[in-house]
């Protein structure tokens, strides 16, 4: 879908490319660890999608505190509404439908798909999941970063 990235090929081959770091952005593990390490140098708020789905208001409050803002409950409600997956999927500014198909070809796949956690289970085979788990453990060892699966 993202025409700026190399052709991913079939899913089976893509998983191998991903684990080997043959991606447009290089190794996922390196990419993630480098950005995670920036918290030592800069004032960065890291958020996790699973947390946002679990309790959007709590996560919006985290952003408010991070920015030093104290907003009314009404503003919190509106922010929650406008940042919901449903609202963002319908918004051309956030769903990228306004971007030319030569860059984001959404006839291949929509940029925003389901907005759920755990859909990887519908795509990974048991063997792919085991390989990814091994890769993840190796890549994230030595960090305090932990993703929820």
Which architecture per CATH? 3-Layer(aba) Sandwich
| CATH top level class name | Alpha Beta
The global form is: globular
What are the low-pLDDT stretches, counting only 5+ consecutive residues below 50? none
Q: List the helices and strands in order.
A: HHHHHHHH
Strand content: under 5%
Helix and strand content put the structural class at: mainly alpha
**CATH homology-level superfamily:** P-loop containing nucleotide triphosphate hydrolases
Number of strands: 0
Give a structural overview.
- This protein has 149 residues and is mainly α.
- It contains 8 helices and no strands.
- It has helices at residues 11-20, 28-37, 49-54, 56-67, 73-82, 85-90, 92-95, 126-140.
- It starts with 10 loop residues before the first helix and ends in a 9-residue tail after the last helix.
- The mean pLDDT is 91.
Q: Could you give the topology of this structure?
A:
Elements: H1 11-20, H2 28-37, H3 49-54, H4 56-67, H5 73-82, H6 85-90, H7 92-95, H8 126-140
Protein name: Sulfotransferase
Family: Belongs to the sulfotransferase 1 family.
EC number: 2.8.2.-
């Amino acid at each position: 879908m993202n025409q700026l990235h190399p052709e991913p090929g079939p899913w089976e081959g893509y998983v191998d490319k991903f684990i080997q770091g043959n991606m447009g952005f290089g190794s996922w593990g390196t990419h993630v660890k480098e950005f995670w390490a920036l918290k030592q140098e800069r004032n960065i708020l890291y958020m996790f999608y699973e947390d946002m789905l679990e309790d959007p208001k709590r996560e919006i409050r985290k952003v408010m505190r991070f920015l030093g803002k104290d907003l009314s409950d009404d503003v919190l409600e509106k922010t929650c509404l406008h940042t919901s997956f449903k609202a963002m999927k319908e918004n051309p500014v956030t769903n990228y439908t306004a971007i030319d198909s030569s860059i984001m070809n959404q006839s291949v796949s929509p940029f925003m798909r389901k907005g759920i956690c755990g859909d990887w289970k519908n795509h990974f085979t048991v063997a792919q999941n085991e390989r990814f788990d091994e890769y993840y453990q190796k890549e994230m060892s030595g960090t305090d970063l932990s993703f929820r699966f």
